[in-house]
Amino acid sequence: MSRLYTVDAQAVAAERAFRAIAILALVLPLCLLALLFGGTLIDGFSRLSFDFLSGFPSRRPEEAGILPALAGTMALMLLTAAMAIPVGVGAAIYLEEYAPPGKITTLIEVNIRNLAGVPSIIYGLLGLEVFVRSLQMDRSLIAGACTLALLLLPMVVMASREALRTVPRMYREAAWALGAEKWTGIRRVVLPMCLPGILTGVILSLARAIGETAPLITLGALTYVSFLPTSLKSAFTALPIQIFNWTSRPQAGFHVAAAAGIVVLLTMMLLLNATAIVLRMRLQKKVTW
Questions:
Q1: At residue 146, what are phi and psi to the nearest 5 degrees?
Q2: CB neighbours (10 Å) of residue 173?
Q3: Which of 113, 209, 210 minimizes the C-alpha distance to 161?
Q4: Which residue has the higher pLDDT, 285 or 197?
Q5: Which of 115, 111, 198 shows the shortest CA–CA distance to 156?
Q6: Alpha helix locations (H) across the chain?
Q7: Sequence-separated (6 or more) residues with CB below 8 Å from residue 97
Q8: CB neighbours (10 Å) of residue 229?
Q9: Residues 6 or more apart from 261 whose CB is under 8 A from it?
């Protein structure tokens, strides 16, 4: 009896120690994030205004704005999502629902996992060679969007496949038993049930892409743009590149502007992450398992 009590006490102690380590692992990154965001907010708070958001870049730091970079970032994300989401979700559906097991399917799956871990600058070099030079898209908005779409594709495919796997097979078999074709069952039963997971993975992938700088710098995106992009072939800039340009300037005023730009960029990323969480919660309430 005493031995059993000792074992139970050791298990409880181990459980408490593991819980403390887990809480510490959660609290420390959050504290570090709050410290960094708070320090950046204090540095750039004086520049946060409507004039800063609606202004154009200037050689005078007190007059510099981020409107072209903000418009370029939003246009990049819309074009990237329009290209990456349909292709990525379609590829996930094929691999999970239609592809026969075999060496070719296994090879594709391994390559997708490997591509998800490739550094972003490699995608920038690929985009420079394929889209800018070979396809002669120049250093344009569409070339940047195609490059970021390639960067997102492996993550969208993997997130969509994981979401598809959460739907039990009996739902597919029930749809087939009622006379539905395979695609009808996927479209009417499987996709609505795994939509929260797909949307969450897609939005989190976009939140990562919105802060990517290396691919855009490799493509040759401009650091000083005094106009808004008007077409797919327009030259462009993005918030990470604008921030990078300001931090490389020696004037202290540009560093304040860069801090304000970082706050805007982090706010956009946090809004995307919050949107993913809200959409997931709302859609999961509508799904009846």
A1: -65, -40
A2: 11
A3: 113
A4: 197
A5: 198
A6: 2-44, 50-54, 67-93, 103-116, 120-127, 141-165, 169-177, 182-185, 191-209, 214-219, 239-247, 252-286
A7: 164, 182, 186, 190
A8: 19
A9: 44, 66, 69, 239, 242, 243, 246
What is the 8-class DSSP label of residue 1? Answer: -
Q: Are 95 and 161 in contact (CB under 8 A)?
A: yes
Mean of per-residue pLDDT scores for the chain: 84
* Token pair 């300037």 in the structure block, residue: 249
How many residues appear in the chain? 289
Task: Return the number of other C-beta atoms located less than 10 Å from residue 91's C-beta.
Answer: 19
Do 164 and 96 touch, CB atoms closer than 8 A?
A: yes
For the record, the structure tokens of 96 come out as 């999970």
Q: Return the residue matching tokens 């380590």.
A: 21
**The pLDDT of residue 157:** 92
pTM for the predicted model, two decimal places: 0.83
Biggest alpha carbon distance in the chain? 80
Three-class SS of 214-233: HHHHHHCCCCCCCCCCCCCC
Please give the Cα distance from 231 to 140 (Å, whole number): 9
Which phi and psi (to 5°) does residue 208 adopt?
-70, -45
Handedness of CA 249, 253, 256, 261 (dihedral sign): negative
Residue 288 has pLDDT above 60, yes or no: no
Contact (Cβ atoms closer than 8 angstroms) between residue 103 and residue 171: no
Instruction: Collapse the DSSP code of 250 into the 3-class scheme (helix H, G, I; strand E, B; otherwise coil) and give the result.
Output: coil
CA dihedral (86, 144, 234, 213) in degrees, to 10, reads 130
276 phi/psi in degrees, rounded to 5: -60, -45
